[in-house]
Amino acid sequence: MRVLVVRGGAMHEPVACTELFLPRLRDRGFTVEVAETLEVYDDRTALARADLILQCWTAGRITAEQEENVVDRVRAGAGFAGWHGGVVATFHEARRYQYMVGGRFLCHPGGLIDHRVDITGDHPVVHGIGSFRVHTEQYYCHTDPTLEVLATTTFSGEHGEPETAGVVMPVVWLRRFGAGRVFVSTLGHAPADLALPEVDTITERGLLWAADMPGAGRDH
After folding, report:
1. Which of 29, 86, 154, 180 could disulfide-link 56, Cβ–Cβ 3.0 to 4.6 Å?
2. Cα-Cα-Cα-Cα dihedral of 110, 112, 115, 116, to 10°?
3. H helix or E strand, kind and range, residue 71
4. pTM listed for this prediction
5. 176 vs 195: CA distance, rounded Å
6. CA–CA separation, 123 vs 107, rounded Å?
7. What does the pLDDT look like over 47-78, one tens digit per residue?
């Protein structure tokens, strides 16, 4: 199987963050192709080779043709996966892309704060993981109501955003998109966040689930 890693953008240490998982994907038998420019989304041949697209690109813009190409490839059967701003705080003008991903970042009241992540259900991606605490950005997003939500966080209404009090917000979700699979986690501001045992496990399983590869993230 082949994974296309698309990394870059304005922040969030895309190289250091993706390198946490690439050795493990190689160990699983993936051939890894790395692109550090969005021009790879112009290349339908490169996209057609990818069984999984792992994107870590914050605050970017893609052309209408690039958007069409990546969305069409996922709908045709490629997996798409990523975390934090690399997937939900980018391409804000690309509505088909946002529809595919299933969410869009809006804000993170208070910046880096202590909060809890609650696991919902017992999907293989989160099996055996209990609720855990983090010190990082608590992402407030607009999300699609059809998502399969695996983890949530509850907002306190503090940090100057009282209207958020009691809001239960998706943190980790899955989405079926045509013949493709989408995995998103809003955790992953920095390598230290991704290295937390619970986040590390969820992310690795989520990548495998999106690729429809046998392993802890498979649900059929």
Report:
1. 86
2. 130
3. helix 64-76
4. 0.96
5. 27
6. 28
7. 999 999 999 999 999 999 999 999 999 999 99
